[in-house]
Specification:
With 621 residues, this protein is of the alpha+beta class. The chain contains 14 helices and 15 strands.
């Protein structure tokens, strides 16, 4: 009855479940990787876009700070659009188009990205913007003349040399207005290092002061104008002022801003912080008024995707449906392929299972359809079946041979005993000798079977000792001399007296005796049987050579099999039991040696025992 395998333990189900699990993990890992990669790419792209947008805004703000109008901005806009891959459009406050990198007639983005006004710059987003909100590049009337720049450059170089002699490394930098100043190695203002010996920067300016501290003639003129613009604002705030209002250069940013003024009112002194803030606001408003005619008017900046920009990743419902659909297709394809592969894997296993469950006496083979692992398993099963079939045949033949071997002497013994009991034959000496011979044959067969059984079970008892090969050969020759003379066969020995081995002498005489007895039986009268012993390297080699008719090439591989005979028609008594040579092979293996046979039809046979040799008797432990 076929055992029912639970579905969850079936190989096909397990293969399918493993494939589904792998597919699900693969899809999940791919989706996670895609989302992560896309997110990273979007974040990187957004960061790049933000940097590009800031770059566009900074460059156009710089253009506005350096130009009084937008008449020549188109070329700048096209260059920025080509470099950043963005669409750039400039309009006035009422959305009148100033410049656009897109073709004419292209609609503007829905909302502006930023406003460009150098006089009202966002302090927190625009790099370099002053606290006043005025773009530092908007210098207007404060731009130095070429002569003034050269003079200040010379002064800066001298001061740089002076710093260098004091061990301070500096570099010369310039403000947007052209004023030279020094930076230290960290990129900060080097004025904190200024010493009395390195304060020569003010000396050449003495001729330029014209009543203003540390300013050039151009800056003095612009500051005078700024003073006139600031005073009405201060007066409007009801500040009680006395003395002359003075303005200086602010170190931070290197641009002209407020310095201060003298306050004589007691109320103003008590509220100095409020007074300073009012003054600062007035100066900022005056600066915007002063710079208004030098900068471009405020404009709106529109940014959009360029022609080469890729669309944004959108996890919309449609995209989700696509992802789920693709994952489902991958999963279905994986299941289908796994089912086909699993079926192909399971089919030969099922065929093998069917073959195994057949009755043993049928010796059913499994079909071999593939050359993979299952095909090799089927071939191994078929080889095992063939060996089992051969062993079964040998077992049957052995049982038949044993029964036949035992039946002959038992039949003879029983027959003679019955006729003696009935008084037909008198129990004389000849009869008793015949019965004794039959009993000896029966005993010899039983002993041989017992030896073979012990050899097969690995329980064959051995008593090793140093043995000289010459003694073994002499004893075996003496034991079989009478049988050889009776058969008319000459038994000779050819022995090397120096050959020793560590062996069981009784078992060795048994093995050599079986070989000699077998040779005498197969050698005709006037033939010769030679028992020889010699040394071959580390081995002691015994050979038994006869001059019989030999063994055919088809029969030679079977001579050491049990109950085998080259001539099936020979009688059991003259042909032996068929167990002598198998015993020889087992005894040789028990002594770590080998037994071999060689023959040429018509020229006799040679049986060889090759055993480990030992030294002289005194060297053998």
């Amino acid at each position: 009855m076929t055992a029912r395998i639970p579905w969850r333990k079936r190989l096909l189900v397990r293969l399918l479940l493993a494939s589904v699990l792998i597919a699900v993990c693969s899809v999940a890992a791919t989706a996670w990787l895609a989302v992560t990669t896309t997110t990273s790419a979007l974040e990187e792209e957004q960061g790049q876009d933000l940097a590009a947008d800031n770059q566009i805004l900074a460059q156009l703000s710089g253009y506005a700070a350096d130009h009084s109008d937008w008449s020549r901005v188109r070329q700048t806009v096209r260059a920025l659009a080509a470099r950043t891959g963005r669409r750039i459009a400039l309009t006035t406050a009422d959305l009148t188009l100033i410049a656009d990198s897109a073709p004419r007639g292209t609609a503007l983005p829905p909302r502006p990205a930023a406003a460009i006004d150098p006089l009202h710059t966002d302090t927190y987003t625009e790099s370099g913007a002053q606290l006043s909100g005025i773009d530092p590049r908007a210098v207007g009337p404060y731009r130095l003349t070429a002569r003034e720049r050269r003079v200040l450059d010379v002064v800066a170089e001298k001061e740089q040399y002076c710093y260098r002699t004091s061990g301070i490394r500096t570099t010369v930098a310039h403000t947007p207005s052209g004023r030279a100043y020094l930076l230290d190695e960290d990129g900060t203002d080097a004025s904190s290092y200024r010493t009395v010996s390195c304060s020569g920067l003010d000396d050449p300016l003495m001729a330029m002061r014209k009543g203003y501290l540390g300013v050039t003639q151009t800056e003095a003129k612009a500051l005078a104008t700024l003073t006139d613009l600031v005073r009405p604002c201060l007066q409007a705030k009801d500040l009680d002022l006395s003395g002359q209002l003075y303005l200086t250069l602010e170190q931070t940013g290197r641009n002209p801003v407020t310095g201060g003024f003298l306050v004589t009112s007691e109320n103003a002194r008590r509220d100095q912080a409020r007074t300073d803030q009012i003054a600062k606001n007035c100066v900022t408003a005056a600066r915007r008024t002063q710079l208004e005619s030098y900068v471009a008017p405020a404009a709106e900046l529109f940014l959009g995707l360029g022609d080469q920009a890729t669309p944004r990743f959108d996890m919309s419902r449609g995209n989700k449906v696509k992802i789920v659909g693709a994952a489902g297709l991958v999963l279905a394809f994986t299941i289908a392929v796994s089912a086909v592969v699993a079926t192909r894997l399971v089919r030969p296993l099922r065929a093998l299972t069917v073959a195994v469950r057949q009755p043993p006496e049928l010796h059913v083979r499994a079909p071999v359809r593939t050359r993979d692992e299952t095909g090799l398993l089927a071939e191994a099963f078929n080889d095992l079946t063939e060996r089992r079939e051969r062993l079964e045949e040998q077992r049957r033949a052995m049982i038949s041979d044993i029964a036949h071997e035992l039946r002959s002497p038992l039949t003879n013994i029983r027959g003679w005993l019955e006729v003696t009991r009935d008084g037909v034959v008198a129990p004389d000496t000849a009869l008793l000798a015949s019965l004794h011979e039959e009993a000896l044959l029966l005993q010899r067969i039983i002993d041989d079977l017992q030896d073979l059984a012990a050899a097969d079970a690995g329980t064959l008892r051995m008593h090793r000792e140093p043995v000289r090969a010459a003694d073994l050969c002499d004893q075996v020759a003496a034991a079989h001399r009478v049988a050889a003379d009776t058969a008319g066969v000459a038994l000779r020995t050819d022995i090397d007296a120096t050959v020793w081995l560590n062996a069981d002498p009784v078992r060795m005489r048994q093995a050599l005796g079986n070989l000699v007895s077998n040779a005498i039986r197969h050698t005709p009268a006037d033939g010769t049987v030679t028992l020889a012993a010699r040394r071959d390297g580390d081995h002691a080699v015994f050979t038994v050579t006869d001059t019989g008719k030999g063994i055919g090439p088809d029969d030679l591989p079977h001579v050491f099999e049990r109950f085998w005979r080259a001539e099936k028609s020979r009688s059991r008594r003259t042909g032996g039991s068929g167990l002598g040579l198998p015993i020889v092979r087992h005894l040789a293996a028990a002594h770590d040696g080998t037994a071999e046979a060689a023959s040429e039809p018509g020229r006799g046979a040679v049986f060889t025992l090759r055993l480990p040799a030992a030294g002289a008797a005194g060297d053998v432990s």
